[in-house]
Amino acid sequence: MLDGGGQSHKTDVIIIGAGPVGLFAVFELGLLGLSSHVIDILDRPGGQCAELYPEKPILDIPSRLKVTGQELSDDLMAQIEPFTPTFHFQQMAEKIEKMENGHWRLTTDLATIIEAPVIVIAGGGGSFTPKKPKIEGIEAFEGTSVFYSVRKMEQFKDKHVLIAGGGDSALDWTVNLNPIVASMTLVHRRNEFRGMQATVDQMYALKEEGKVNLQIGDIVRLNGDNGQVKSVTMKSKESKEEVEISCDTVLPFYGLTMKLGPIAEWGINLEKNRIPVDTEKFETTEKGIFCIGDMCTYPGKLKLILSGFHESALMAHGCFHYARPDQKLRFEHTTSSSSIQAKLGAS
């Protein structure tokens, strides 16, 4: 179910963040009979997986030899469908208030109001925006011939692509888009790269085969009109001269800026822009507010999707006592519980 803003709702749990960990939290809460409303600043589920690498393979999800960010998001959406969560996309959790009955009232920037006994923060690193190159007039080309992420590889088929950057994203897409583009240029300001060595080696192998034009220098100007890039002017690191490179698509991968946004003002203890939690139920210093995924921190924390899945399961059990204070939690395995199997349509 989708809500476009401006309405009032009541639920058991409010989840902030619709990435893989937030989506799996819906599932774990649903197993315990708890309903969820999910808020995300993006326009669709999947979080960073869907926004930054929807077609990039993820190789460390248990039982999945390979799965793309989009496939993982789609499968998680299918898994939680029996629990009918409500999604509030393109909205930011702006303000929270503690009510007299002990519940939380959350208000979004679109005036949606949601009341619940529990809030779960699953916002990854916070709301994120790409770091843009300091190039005058780049805004005129954004969304037409300058893109900060690859959502569909087919969009770049037969294009003359120039990628700027030296990290994992720049190198990964230099390699992964290479088979379908008309030409590929990689521009980086120095000879050293920050990405994984295996991908660096793949890029250099493509360069030796004449499939990647590697240029060391800084982009100083985009040339084109009506939103369409026709070439890029680069200042060479070695010669200090300006070089013009023909291209019709530019992908700057200079990293992301992460911001906690209003969450930083909610009175929750922060530790280096992360939220400390206990490892029994992943509750924050504020009773009834939990945190899972990349945004939470504790001794031994690993920023992995599979870690977030584990955190979701323990969090759900902690939430139950707030949402159902008069009920005893009955733990059941999905393999043997006929009631759970019925919920999931697997009986």
Residue share in β-strands? 25-35%
CATH third-tier fold name of the largest domain:
FAD/NAD(P)-binding domain
CATH homolog superfamily of the largest domain: FAD/NAD(P)-binding domain
Number of domains: 2
**pLDDT < 50 runs, ≥5 residues:** none
Secondary-structure-based class equals alpha/beta
Residue share in helix: 10-25%
The CATH architecture of the largest domain would be 3-Layer(bba) Sandwich
Task: List the defining traits of the structure above.
347 residues; alpha/beta; FAD/NAD(P)-binding domain; 6-stranded mixed sheet; 5-stranded parallel sheet; 7 helices; 21 strands; 22% helix
Fold and architecture overview:
With 347 residues, the chain is α/β, with parallel strands linked by helices. The protein has two domains: 8-128 and 257-343, FAD/NAD(P)-binding domain; 132-254, FAD/NAD(P)-binding domain, CATH 3.50.50. 22% of the residues lie in helices and 28% in strands. The protein has seven helices and 21 strands. It has helices at residues 20-31, 47-52, 69-80, 168-176, 197-208, 305-323, 338-343, and strands spanning 8-10, 13-16, 36-40, 57-58, 67-68, 86-89, 93-98, 104-108, 113-116, 118-121, 127-130, 160-164, 183-188, 213-225, 228-236, 242-246, 249-252, 256-259, 275-276, 289-291, 296-297. Strands 16-15-14-13-12-17 form a six-stranded mixed beta sheet, with helices on one face. A five-stranded parallel beta sheet has the order 6-3-2-10-20, covered by helices on one side. Strands 1-9-8-7 form a four-stranded mixed beta sheet, with no helix packed on it. β7 (93-98) and β8 (104-108) form a beta hairpin. It is elongated.
